[in-house]
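Tokens for FAD-dependent oxidoreductase. Go.
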Amino acid sequence: MSGITHDEHTQVLVVGGGLGGVAAALAAARSGATVVLTEEFEWIGGQSTSQAVPLDEHPWIEDFGCTRSYRRYRDGIRDYYRRAYPLTDEAAARRDLNPGAGWVSKLCHEPRVAVAVLEEMLAPYRSSERLRLFTGYRPVAADAVDGVVSSVTLAPVDGDRHLRIGADYVIDATELGDLLPLAGIDYVTGFESRAETGEPSAPEQAQPENIQALSICFAVEHEAGADHTIPKPEQYEKWRAVQPDFWGAPLVSWTAPHPRTLEITSRHFEPNPGDDVLAVVADQSANPGDTNLWSFRRIIATDMFAKGTFDSDVTLVNWPSIDYFEAPVIDVPEDVAAARLEDARQLSLSMLYWMQTEAPRPDGGAGWPGLRLRPDIMGTEDGLAMAPYHRESRRIRAVETIREQDVSPAARGTDTARSYPDSVGVGMYRIDLHPSTGGDNYIDVPAAPFQIPLGSIIPAGGGNLLAGAKNLGTTHITNGCYRLHPVEWNIGEAAGMLAAHCLNTGLTPTGVHGDTSAVGTFQQVLEADGFELSWPDGVYAY
């Protein structure tokens, strides 16, 4: 391929620097492997950083239900605020410091803080040259035979210096499973048929183009009396007129179906409400917390900091009104995907413009012109997130596919999830599917606390590629509970550990999985490294 100027080899290549990719790289490096980690965007961290989505976690996360390194990541974020920010004495003293006092998470924070913490976690391995990081590169080709990937070619986002990296093991931790088609790995997209999966909520016919909404998030503050109204977006009239059949109102509004009941619900919006930020108890099992959209995903709460530090709260807009579900961006020509992502950007800008100019206020007026984008917080010039938030990826056809009847109490007839003898971690989230490109409304139902089976990260055809993010062996339905931050981290970390373990033992991934004794030995390695492989008694579906 023309333009290639750099070839090298590593033991473990991790393509995609989101949370799964970072966790995979850390795990492989601390297990003794040499690692190359690549990322398309400037920031590593994916959901937490370039996509700007505050941590979405289960209610027990402060005490159990994640790996040791994920807890170190969370602790690092809090420590960063304690070291670098003038917190109030009351806020600094809190073990469960929540800098944004958001209701969606016990730890709402700014994207750049997460970037700093992740870079700090990688630092010793980069200094020792055990790990090399290349940002601004995306995969464009792979040399592979029968599932064995010998090298991956990456193109620069800007410039012409291509990379071709050979590796003993390759982990696909991209947001959309980009390596799978390049390497000829069998995969699935969209909604599988009921005949294939046996899932009671699956359709009769497969719907490969029926994929969950993506969102392009942004952060805003509010300056009373000021006018920060953006220029009218090009597609504003289009998006202002869109009203999905099941929405009950225009898409660009405060109104949307309630995810759990599908009842048409109007949310409240009030910038800087003056609420008691220390009284916020973020627990979605008890209260989804989205009644006031301002405080729902707030990432800076002024009252957490010394007086005068901030003039306004800052909130992260990731609401139903910016869900783009008109058409998929997976497995379509690049120009088509680019045009659809631009449509999604226009939807987000249209929502902001509507909030600034037309949105009904509690006092009877219209619009908050004082709403101001914070491009510095997003790390971009336009103020929108650096990367789209993709909820659903291509998914490997895996040795083990996790189905609705493995995690859903309603489908199982029991309040516990399926127990996997090859567990490599745990996770918990509701089966939360946003509206999709096939015209489906929300599917948001309880899940039981679940395990991550080793077989779900190994392609059915074997080889040396492992799934390291949302591209593991779930279905369209179970993707809804395996796609959030701590689970993605655990998936990637398990993949990184498996790659290093195979290098250390001479086994293959399928060789480990196919031998009960080898699985047990690998699980001992994981537990010694701080993995939790099962849930304690007393946790429940919600």
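The radius of gyration is 22 Å.
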